[in-house]
C-alpha cells in the first residue's frame, strides 16, 4: 500500500497558513476545523508544519500566552515529508522514528495532501480486515478433496 492509496480514500482537503500569520489565528483555524495540523506555505513553497505539539510548546515557552507570536516562531521548519509513491511501511517507520503525527505529501514542490498517524493506522486496520475477510471466504469455500470424503462401510 502506498501513500496515494490513503489520500484517495481520505480526500484532498488541505488547510494551510502563512509563516507570518498570527499564531492565534492558526489556533482558531485548527479549533474551527477540528484538525491537529496546518501546513505552513510561503509563496507556494512548503516552509513548515504547525501541529498542536508546536502550539503547546510555544504557549508554555511564552508563559501560557500566545500574544503577538507568529506561526514562523512556533512551526517545525524541517517537517518530515513523503511522496505519493512512498510505501506505507516506510511512512510508519519514519513517523515512529521522528514521533511525527502528521506528514505533508509532496510531488516535487507541490503539496498533495497531509496524512496523519491516524490515517496510517486506519489504512493498516482496513487492509488487515479486508485480508481477514478474504481468508475466511477462501477457507469457507475450500474445495473438498477426494481423500477427505467419508468412505461407506460395507
Brief overview:
The chain is α+β, with helices and mostly antiparallel strands and 154 residues long. It has helices at 3-10, 23-33, 52-61, 71-74, 88-98, 117-140, and strands at 16-17, 37-42, 45-51, 102-107, 110-116. The N and C termini lie far apart (56 Å).
Would you write up a description of this structure?
This protein has 154 residues and is of the alpha+beta class. Helix content is 44%, strand content 18%. It has helices at 3-10, 23-33, 52-61, 71-74, 88-98, 117-140; strands at 16-17, 37-42, 45-51, 102-107, 110-116. Strands 1-2-3 form a 3-stranded mixed beta sheet. A two-stranded antiparallel ribbon has the order 4-5. Helix 2 (23-33) links the parallel strand 1 (16-17) and strand 2.
The helix/strand order is HEHEEHHHEEH
The helix content, as a percent range, equals 40-55%
Low-confidence spans: pLDDT under 50, at least 5 residues?
A: none
Global mean pLDDT? 89
First-last Cα distance: 56 Å
Order of strands side by side in the largest beta sheet?
Answer: 1-2-3
Number of strands: 5
Multimer state = single chain
For the largest beta-sheet, the strand count, sense and barrel status come to: 3 strands, mixed
